[in-house]
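REVIEWER CHECKLIST
Item 1: Sequence provided? yes
Item 2: Single chain? yes
Item 3: Sequence as submitted:
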Amino acid sequence: MRREGAIAALGFLLVVVAWGFNYPFLRLGTEFALPAFLFFLRALAGLLFVIPLLRGLGWQVALPRRQVVRALAIGAIGYGAFFLFWGYAAAGVPPGEASVFIYLFPIWVLLLSVPLLGQRPLPLQLAGVFLGFGGVVLVAGVGTRALGGSPGDLLLLTAAGACWAIGTVLSKRAFGRFEMVTANAWQLAAGTAVLGGVGFATEPWGSIQWTGDLLVVVAWSGILGTGAAYLIWYYLLAHNSAGPLSAFTFLVVVVAWVGSITLFQESIDPVQVAGVALILIALYLVGRGGTREPARPPEGLRPGPEYGQSRPGETRIHDRSLSECSGEERIIA
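Item 4: Structure as written out by the authors:
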């Protein structure tokens, strides 16, 4: 189990790095392509990476038609609307600042998990999530310097994070543990279709400047930042509670900040360093906090108790340290 936890932690580290550098790379990409087409290329590259990878790995979990329809509907929101809103705001907001408004995401997940998943966060976890968001705000310099984005752009980024949270929580509710990875591929296909449809309807294909820089942006944000990262994310989501797992993504903002400094020469100040410290403390609290959720098997495949499902009348308490992201659970009667 320790080996599985270490592999999961390494996988999550890849997700954090890939997602963090998405922000400066995609900001750079707005110089070469309009929003819908830029994010369409990102999603398409991710999809073309994921499909052969799953085939190569021998992943053969097929979804019933009803589950495919659910995956497509969720993907239109969790990928399509999320990427589209982010794309429309990306050019007008500094990468670090953009990441803050999108990373209201863990708070949205925490709030949605109560009615949709029946997951009741414990006090320590709640404190950690809100402390972590406070750290994220400090890292981005919100409140200590003038915001770089317009109110409309910041609203779009907030809506983008909410769409991502809706997709995450609905995926956790709709799909069984063994369906999650396959469902992610269908969701990405739906998001790619939405982005392509909007792009071809509203933007001229000839506006894309096919430069080496654009190809680097698409390769990073598509192959690593979408295909590989979301594959790992949904695998981890299948084995962990949505709220605590999402809280660990606050680390993405730190990486985005580092990327902004590297590529856009953004400055560093003591307040931002204090924000990083708050995020690290918050992650410790979230890891110690856990969640309490009712013993209700997810829809779709419903394996027996030997696969980690609770028996009727039991309550599961999820322990959430990053090293335990392999889905271990304690069962109490």
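Item 5: Key structural point noted by reviewer: The longest helix spans residues 2-29.
Item 6: Recommendation: ____
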